[in-house]
Design a protein that fits this description.
3 helices; single chain; about 0% strand; about 60 residues
Length: about 60
């Protein structure tokens, strides 16, 4: 049972990270900022995603 839950959690984190990286790459931020956020999300998948959601650049609506 533990493996299935861990595998599902890992899959959800992977999907969320890919979503974040796509949004980071498509943002209007400077290339250096984009690279920094992408590296952070890749190196620290959960923490990087949370940090990007909280501190990342916001789209102007």
């Amino acid at each position: 049972m533990g493996f299935e839950v861990g595998g599902l959690f890992g899959l959800l984190i992977l999907i969320a990270d890919v979503w974040a990286i796509i949004h980071i790459a498509q943002s209007r931020s400077a290339p250096g900022q984009k690279a920094l956020w992408i590296v952070l999300v890749l190196v620290l998948p959960v923490l990087g995603l949370v940090l990007w959601l909280v501190f990342g650049p916001r789209a102007k609506t």
